[in-house]
């Protein structure tokens, strides 16, 4: 063992012995189509989690919310001991487009050592790794060295609309010394990843109207306005040719990067060719520091979809009556999604008041200090579990509701993804390596053990 722990070796041996049993447990969970966007499979997923958690010795209850229920569990060893809160989500993305899956999206299928199924990486495989780690640790060693609480939600894939209120109303129940999440992929190099925050998000929709119906582009050309151009003209007032956002106050409140975070970025591995291959963009040519700054420390202004007119086969000569634009705008600490929406709203009113703007939801960014002792302890445990030096980033590029821990619960939070970099979450043929799944179980055991040995 990298840390010389015979007890942890016994845990790892047990995990290997039970690999097939643990995989079957995961497969049963994956077959439940818990798609939050379609309100399917929610009760079934909650029931299976509760039954499994109780069989492990976790005192568990299903707690209602304004939306999908939360599954809460706890093992309290000693009220004065360190308390770890593990967060995950049991809901998954829709399988669409189903025709692009090589195997049924809700029937786990193994190919080349990887499990293909909707939700296997995001987040059921990683959630299950946490629970099976508790079972393995207790069966191999005995009593846990720390208190552990679990909170699993069913609306993460629809932007967690009820998580913040639930946490605010249940602060005493959820009180912890650290929140630990496993979600998202490992580093593109394949190295384990320790993340100290996430980018937030604001999601907006713009609708431009022209005539009451589509018109002939010749007979009515230059007569009837085209709403697609109205949106394009507006976009040109919002962003310059270098990618800088021109909305007044957009960059206000962004927290300056610290020296420790600067050092983290300089220490990160970087393989330009591999990144280009992983994302399917052969012309990728950024330098390392630019790449990590743009990925973790700078906001985005992304067009997620633009729909107008005819998009079928061949040609159809029309002036469309409507154009709809959807944008996701990733935010960094301390930008606030509501504040950013208000600034966008003011810009739209000034430059294109006839365009309708909707706020489709948002999520705050988060950041935990890299200077905390617990961060070093988690990093050391991850290194021991994977037998590899982990990569530590100030933030992940994507968005999770991590702010509810740092801002609402006022608790430091660390994210350690267990899924492979090419997990294809949210895409057809989502996958997670069997080795990534079992390594995740081992990693949770190492984290628990390491925290249990720290003075508290």
TrEMBL record:
Residues 197-354 form the Peptidase M20 dimerisation domain. One of its GO terms (biological process) is proteolysis. GO terms for molecular function: metal ion binding; peptidase activity. Keywords: Hydrolase, Metal-binding, Protease. This is M20/M25/M40 family metallo-hydrolase. It comes from Planococcus glaciei.
